[in-house]
Amino acid sequence: MRKRKSLVRALLAATRSMVQGGLSETSRRCGKPTCPCAHEATYRHGPHLYLTYREDGDNRSLYVPAEHVADARAAHEAWASFWTIGCAIAALNRETVRRQWQRESPPRGPRARRRGRRDD
């Protein structure tokens, strides 16, 4: 019970700043014919950070301005923590349910009745 409460507190803490999605960095050409990026394959503008996510079945991306990169990375990390903690809570719940169901359900079938006995 103590572990579950600790996990729930951590889960709530993660919700304060989490943002679901992935982070991707891209470098691009600007499209100006006089820019070095138009003629030189190694020259690109960036890297620029984007938050990528799905909304209504479509892939979306949100540009992250340079001054907010640290915030975006922290929000992404909070989402990863939320996911990990949620899975840990689900595992605890699954184990609780398994134990409860095993106590409540009598063994069934011919094999279940023989379980625990040895005919050696």
What structural category do the secondary elements indicate?
alpha+beta
Query: Strand order of the main beta sheet, please?
Result: 1-2-3
Radius of gyration: 26 Å
Low-confidence stretches: none
- Per DSSP E runs of 2 or more residues, the count of β-strands stands at 3
- In whole angstroms, the N-to-C terminal distance is 42 Å
Percent strand equals 15-25%
Order of helices and strands: HEEEHH
User: Main sheet, how many strands, which sense, barrel?
Assistant: 3 strands, antiparallel
Helix content: 40-55%
How would you state the average pLDDT, rounded? 88
In one word, what is the shape? elongated
Q: What's the helix count?
A: 3
Highlighted features:
three-stranded antiparallel beta sheet, alpha+beta, 3 strands, 120 residues
Model description:
There is one protein chain. By secondary structure, this protein is α+β, with helices and mostly antiparallel strands. Helices cover 47% and strands 21% of the residues. It has three helices and three strands, in the order H-E-E-E-H-H. A three-stranded antiparallel sheet has the order 1-2-3, covered by helices on one side.
